[in-house]
Amino acid sequence: MKKYLIIIFLLCLSCSYPDIDTVPEFEKMEISEDS
Length: 35
Hints:
- The chain is mainly alpha-helical.
- It has two helices and no strands.
- The protein has helices at about 1-15, 20-35.
- The radius of gyration is 13 Å and the shape is elongated.
- About 0% of the residues are buried.
């Protein structure tokens, strides 16, 4: 079960790699949530 989750997580990371532009936006959202 855990191995399966890790595989999905790695796949998600691979899929999000081309969308590097969305990473800073996500960080900004997290910061906004914190404050």
